[in-house]
Amino acid sequence: MKIHDITVRKIFDSRGESTIEILLKSGNRWFSASVPSGKSRGSREAKVFSFAEVVRALVQIRRAILKKDFSSIRACDNALIRLDGTKNKSSLGGNLMLGISVAFARAFAAAKNEESWQTLRREFFPKGVSGRAPRIFANVINGGAHADNNLDIQEYMVVAGGASVRARVGNLIDFYNRLGAILKKKNSGRMVPVGDEGGYSLDFKNNFEPIAVLENLIRARGLADSFALALDAAATGFFARGSYVFGGKKLTSVRLADEYARYFEKSRILFSIEDPFAERDADGFSLIRKKMPRAWVVGDDLTVTSSSEIRKYAESSAINAVIIKPNQIGTVSEAADAILAARQCGLKTIISHRSGETEDAFIIHLAKASSADGVKIGAPARERIAKYNELMRLYDK
């Protein structure tokens, strides 16, 4: 398939910050893709270019790939990767490369009269997939870098499984609204602000109180069989000078692991923790894996959607689950390779949004194509609802 034109326009993400939308023409049709951005980024993520840098880099890309014939998504991605020539996409920009990669994937699927997930599955995941729907990780209370409150933990998530996707989404929306009413009372009847991902943002007594509030509501609503709890500590955000500043105290990795273990002991429906330690503290990850062998210990800043990093930390028993964010690595093919590496290592995979999102729902197609174990898509409200709606479109036909 040939690319006949590529243009870029500036748009805005859910934080009101500028990002890019790629428009790619093949034949007489145009295809688009918009690119999200993260606030708490791992230091080894693909480089994000400013709009001015994107415009300059696109000139080089157009010269190299326009009118070329590509036989697959990977063929187009490989051309971009070779042209960039760097590990962190610092020559062309990971955001520009991803936008082109996703737009091309959509065009390639359309040329074959397929949905994007069908083309992705056929090219990257022809074996070992199932029709099961992923669990939905919904961030309903925000802290850390995503909120203006006193919580160190960045995300308190309700995880919905069990019923049909439509029923899960309906239950999550009802839960989110009821939680808002409870927190409004806690906030002296005042409206509760929300964080970057739509989760409620207010001060709590300590880092455990949100877990207790969520568990109490889950049990009160009779949802304990289908709802569970998960955390994203994003611990790099509260790591400084060799210590973790957590709950107003300076803690070593060992003491922080003990604190997490107490949380899991106190809440029987808490099952997963993402980035419990800083991105360079792999020993901390290994420690908590030994301390809590049944919990999901999820790598994100540690692994940055890199096949080699995923294998490295899986083999050292630092993680048993991994976050996949296409914009951390810069192309669809490399994100697919990261999923395959995780699967080969026996890890759970969670396809994730970013805190600065757009209405683009491509990650839901990637999740369906790869039979991901989970999708992490923020609160069931505002701009995040686009991904919930796409889940229902793909799974409840």
Automatic annotation (TrEMBL):
GO terms for cellular component: phosphopyruvate hydratase complex. Its EC number is 4.2.1.11. Substrate binds at residues 146, 155, 274, 300, 352-355, 376. The keyword Magnesium applies. Residues 3-120 form the Enolase N-terminal domain. It is an enzyme of class 4 (lyase). One of its GO terms (biological process) is glycolytic process. Mg(2+) is required for catalysis and for stabilizing the dimer. Its cofactor is Mg(2+). Signal peptide: none annotated. InterPro entries: Enolase, Enolase-like_C_sf, Enolase-like_N, Enolase_C, Enolase_CS, Enolase_N. Belongs to the enolase family. PANTHER family: ENOLASE. This is Enolase.
